Amino acid sequence: MDKRIINDLSANELAEAIAAMGEKRHRAVQILKWLYQKGAASFAGMTNLPRGLRERLDERFIISAPRLVESIRSSADASQKFLLEAADGALVETVLMEADGHRTICVSSQVGCPLGCSFCRTGDGGFERDLSSGEILGQILFFKSGYLPPRRRFNIVFMGMGEPLLNMRNLAAAIGILNAEEGFGLGEKRITVSTIGIPDRIRELAAANPRFSLALSLNATTDAARKRLMPAARDLDDTLAAAREFARARRARVTLEYVLIAGENDSDDDARRLAALSAGGPFKLNLIPFNEWEGCPHRRSDEDRIERFVALLLPTAPAVTVRRSQGNDIRAACGQLRLRRRSRD
Ligand code: SAH
Ligand code: SF4
To answer: Ligand 1 centre from 88 Cα, in Å?
Structure first.
């Protein structure tokens, strides 16, 4: 029989698979703990399972783990980027960021991205495929196996390669295990999904008792300007209405991300429109100075412009933060390690 990758099963699917093997329910809980809390690399090592069950698991399933291809440390801050290889050779980027004692893992949801935003290195590199839920979780297991001290808390942001809302099933399965007490046991405040904004998908998530935070990549304040930067952008009003629904369902604010690009979206009028469309809403604003990359004509707004932009926002806009350093040069390079590798092959 063909072996299945056990990490690709949601918590429910694992429970069903274990029940179908005639085993008691709590065995599934034990297996989840072995896989995600202890990072077990083999069934043989799952010592509180009966030997017979370990052997039968071994006949049916594989435990998957990505292989490290390359890592780079950011010169500007304490972030580190890793290029991981999936079983089929696909290359996946993951970043570990550290600031003020907090660790954040920036994970990918797809290999590349099909949406082609003009400022994004990942989009520029095209799209290969979705990541399975096991491959999404594999990025976090990779850190747990060597880069994170045991029992240290960390945050997860889906801001690596890909558009998470184009990979809903695998995203949901991965988040289920990130949340589950017997899985990674992360609190829902520690997980953030960043999206270009697909209204019907946001509504679908809102209706399903979401246990994670949402960040919406707004990046411009009119439909025309958004479309120019993000050809796949959907209707702005509808997208914001969906984000409000999510905020209501989650009883938490949605972050509006705004990459500041010189001459594209950083004028005084842009700031006033951004203030107006976010005022009074269940939002937080996160301004991200554009990170330049070779081959991209866009330029980062200069410091004076950023300051003026923030000053115009402050009287009316909700909480505003500017992402100054964390992972900056690394984020600029998002998609870059993978592309460099590919061109070498
Ligand atoms: N596809 C999702 C998640 C991945 S991109 C999304 O678009 O939200 C994560 C964030 O990185 C987005 O807010 C995006 O606007 C931002 N980003 C992409 N390229 C960037 C660059 N060169 N400089 C700064 N931010 C960038
Ligand atoms: Fe895809 Fe997000 Fe990059 Fe746009 S910004 S191309 S949606 S990864």
So the answer is: 26
Sign of the dihedral through C-alpha 111, 191, 96, 149: negative
What pLDDT is attached to residue 78?
72
Do 237 and 324 have their domain in common?
A: yes
Task: Choose one of 47, 62, 77: the last residue of a domain.
Answer: 62
Biggest CA-to-CA distance, the chain: 69
Q: Are residues 52 and 130 in the same domain?
A: no
pLDDT value for 323:
80
Q: For position 337, what pLDDT does the model report? A: 57
Task: Give CA–CA dist 198/120, Å, rounded.
Answer: 18
Output the residue whose Cα is nearest ligand 1's atom 11. 159
* Residue 66 and residue 138 in contact, taking contact as beta carbons nearer than 8 Å: yes
- Backbone phi and psi for residue 336, each to the nearest 5 degrees, phi listed first: -80, -45
* Nearest in space to 243 (alpha carbons), one of 287, 279, 198: 198
Q: Within 6 Å (CB) of ligand 1, which residues are found?
A: 119-120, 159, 163, 194-196, 217, 219, 257, 259, 288, 290-291, 293, 331-332
Give Cβ neighbours of residue 177 (< 8 Å, ≥ 6 apart): 10, 11, 32, 36, 133, 137, 183, 184
Please give the tally of structural domains in the chain: 2
Give dist(CA 343, CA 345) in Å, integer.
6
**83 in the same domain as 54:** no
pLDDT at 93: 93
Residue 146's CB: how many other CB atoms inside 10 A? 8
Mean pLDDT of the chain: 91
Query: What is the CA 136 to chain-centroid distance, rounded?
Result: 9
Which segments of the chain have a pLDDT < 50?
326-327, 332-333, 344-345
Question: What domain range includes position 45?
Answer: 4-62
Same domain membership, residue 73 and residue 14: no
CA 7/CA 218 separation, integer angstroms: 33
Question: Quick one: 58 exposed, middle or buried, by C-beta within 10 A (0-12, 13-18, 19+)?
Answer: middle
Does 86 share its domain with 209? yes
